[in-house]
Predict the structure.
Amino acid sequence: MIKTIHLTFILLSVFSFVGRVILSETHPTLLKQPVFKAAPHIINTLLLLSGVILVFQGQWLSRETGWLLAKVIGLIGYIGLGIVTLRTRGRNRWLAFAGAMACIVYIGIVAVTRKPFFFL
């Protein structure tokens, strides 16, 4: 059940991010509305909370944890690139957006394979 909740919040987080990027290009004034400011923080907080619950529920801290560290590093990259995406314009915005999406893909692959260096 927690895994389903976690996966749901992952989808909501990614769709929310992509939606905010689209809105920032098409209707930037909408992003100043309270719902568009609060919703991403609520979604991402619940996403992180469900992730922490999964770690403890699966007792993953007692085993090999390199893949969890890789996911956390990927998450930090996603957050940083997401901030750049939403605060800049032009080419830098789209490069940061592509990098953020690459981080999401990396986190997903590491979550499934549990191998941080799956590409080697």
Q: What stands out?
A: The radius of gyration is 15 Å. The chain is about 80% helix and 0% strand.
